[in-house]
Amino acid sequence: MRSMSRVMRRGLSLILAISLLWIVHPFKANAQSSPKYGGVLRIIRFSGPGTPFGWPIKTRGLDSLAASPCLEPLMRQEWEGHYVPILATDMSIAPDKGSITFKLRKGVKFHDGTDWNAEAAKFNLQAYIDNKKPEAKDWKSIDVIDNYTICIHLTKFENTGLLDLVGRKMVSPAAYKTKGEEWLGWHPVGTGPFEFESFQRDVNCTYKKFEGYWQKGKPYLDGVEWLYIKDPMTQTAAMKAGEADVQSVTLGKNTRDMEAVGLNVVYKINASLNLIPDSGNTDSPYADQRVRNAVSHALDREAFVKALGYGFWKVQYQMPIDDNPAYIKGFKGRAYDPERAKKFLEEAGYPKGFETMLMPMPGTPPDVFAVIQSYLGAVGIKVKIEQVPMGKFMSTRTEGWNNGLLLQPFAVWQNFGKTMQYYISSKSSDFPVLKRFPEIDTLIDEAVATVQPDVNLLQRAVRMMDERTVTIPVYSSGGAYALQKYVKDAAFLKLANWNDWVPEDAWMDK
Fold first, then answer.
1. What is the mean pLDDT of the chain?
2. Cis status of the peptide bond prior to 219, with omega within 30 of 0
């Protein structure tokens, strides 16, 4: 086996994001002053988890954030591409790339007092294999070498697979075996800086400081509380009244409003908003590409972004955002042309348009889907908006829908092959009624099979997606948080996985 440091010396480092450099350095708190201890960080989010957040096998999308104070992975990847060891301290990749071996951190306890070790790691990773999860599609088997060493044998190597492997969150095997999967799903038991206390659906989720945390001197906070408040005006009122410390905000007017009342705002552009049609349903209007073309031509993205983006959004005619290696400069998409949209509808057999459904992901600004509704209505597509709770949205996303469009942001990883696998590949576990294309699958598979992501192949896949109107990109956006002045480090938006954070680094001066 060879270590990553040796690979670096030979100039053969595996690239996962901008660069997969084996540079190990701990996260640092605010360098301007020393962190202070104490306080419960109260964080407002628009919606609570709709899937079991304590058993990662069953957790979907943003729901994983609910358990992030409690559950930890083998390693974290920073936005810049570097890996930071968490429950694993080292990894080595076989010369033939047929296996990956991890050295695990010693002296770590789960919140129930049981030991973190190789058997615990195997239990968690084996569950992904047993449940046939897409993250584990290339994991052949797992061997326990000794108490603190495991080896994962691969059926094949993919440059996107390392993040899938090291980012898996670990739970207590004892809790699973004694309490059961259903209980654990809503009562996470991990190794993280905070220990789970309570969860009330659509109300809050609370954690207290774990006194036995393995990072000495951390966490700084006494606890964390997620506050689930759906109404934007109620959210803002809570921040103004000092009833919350951090608020997850939507880039756009919401962000500027937070700045106007004196709050600090941190944000990162890391996603593109897309309309997802049920094009795989043969009886859906969207099965006809001409209808999908009409939807794209009906949207005046430039006017849309200028009116509602408040300087944050950018027009998207392709899925990758403009700082992504797969982004195609000078790309020309389907520009606003309502007359052409009507012509496409007429050719597809809908001269008078048709009725359809639009389901926005919870947290989408109402103005956004209202404007989309208006643009589509202007060319004859009569849209009924269906606003649903997060649980319903996630079940629709994974089980399917009829004659309609979903509206949601797509996370854009620096290795765009990961984004394509997660959302667009036929191997994706999401959007079962989205039409998939074998020729796009082939490009994705070839792009992720190389040691470094093949950007040319990924860009060909992006062009092919446009040629077939697979989804309809609208604008780029991302994650943002409004902070009270006394919140010196909320520790959000530091990682490649945009729905994760570094809770042990968060602190306040109040």
1. 91
2. yes
